[in-house]
Amino acid sequence: MAVEIIKVLSVLEKTHQPTMLEMLKDYTPFQRLVATLLSARTKDVTVIPVVKDLFQKYPGPKEILKLSDAELEKKLYRIGFYKVKTKHVKELCRILLEKFDGKVPDTLEEMTTLPGVGRKTANCMLSYVFNKPAIAVDVHVHRISNRLGWISTKTPEESEERLMAIVPRDSWNKVNMLLVDHGQRICLPINPKCKECPVLKYCEFGKRRFTSSRSHIA
Ligand code: SF4
Q1: Percent of the chain with pLDDT over 70
Q2: Which residue in the list 85, 138, 174, 181 is annotated as catalytic?
Q3: 160-186 burial, b for 16+ CB within 10 Å, e for fewer?
C-alpha cells in the first residue's frame, strides 16, 4: 500500500495548485493560525483577501485586541460564522499573550488548548508552518483517502490514525496539501470528476464507477 500511496501523491504533485496555507507562506505563524481558524466551512478564496486586509493594519494579537468585537466582526463579516469566529480570534489573542508570550506554540498538545483549535487545525500548523510531520485530516482528506481505498473509516480521527500507520512518515506533510487541492478541484464531495482524474487507475471508488468502460482507465 505504501508504494501505491507514494505513486498517487507523486501523480497529484504534478498538477498541484497551492491551497490557502501555501499561498500565505510568507505570513507569520499567528496570521496563518488565524487564517486557518477562519477558513472552517468557508472557501479559501473568501478568506484570503479578508485576512490580507486585516493583517495589514492589525498584524498580531496585541493589535487585534485593540479592535472591539463589533469592529472585528465588521472586518470578518464575509466569512461564514463570523460572529463565533470573532470571539474565538479575540480569545485566542488573549490566551497567546497571557500564556505563550504572544507566540503560537509548536506542539499539538499546547495548540489544542487554544480556543477553536482542534486536531485538524493543529496538525495543519505543525505541517505547513512548523515543518513537523503531521497528517491534517479535514473533510477532503477523509473522503478521498477512503475513496482511493487506502483506508476504510467512519471519522476523521480514525482516518488520521490509520493514515499515520500506512503513509510513510516522510510523506505525511504531502497528504493534506495534495488531497485538499484535489478535493477542491476534481474529487468533489458530490459528482467527483473521475473522468478527468489523474489517479483514476489507482482509485477503488473511481474504478467501480467505470467498470463498464475499463478501457478508459488502462
Ligand atoms: S477517481 Fe474519482 S473518486 Fe477517485 S480520486 Fe479521482 S475523482 Fe476522486
Answers
A1: 96
A2: 138
A3: bebbeeebeeebbbbbbbbbbbbbeeb
pLDDT digits (tens, 9 = 90+) for 41-86: 899 999 999 999 999 999 999 999 999 999 999 999 999 999 999 9
Other Cβ atoms closer than 10 A to 42 = 17
pTM of the predicted structure, to 2 decimals: 0.90
In the chain the domains, ranked by start, together with CATH numbers, are 2-17+135-217 (1.10.1670.10), 20-129 (1.10.340.30)
* Best residue for ligand 1 mutational test, from 146, 181, 205 (most atoms within 8 Å of Cβ): 205
The finding on whether 144 has its CB within 6 A of some atom of ligand 1 is: yes
138 is annotated as an active-site residue: yes
Q: What is the pLDDT of residue 218?
A: 40
**DSSP element (H, E) containing 97:** helix 82-99
What contacts 92, CB < 8 A, 6 or more positions away? 33, 34, 37, 61, 114, 115, 116, 117
Residue 215 clears pLDDT 70, i.e. is over it: no
194 in contact with ligand 1, CB cutoff 6 A: yes
Q: What is the mean pLDDT of residues 138-153?
A: 97
Q: Among this protein's residues, is 120 annotated catalytic?
A: yes
Protein residue closest via CA to atom 2 of ligand 1: 194
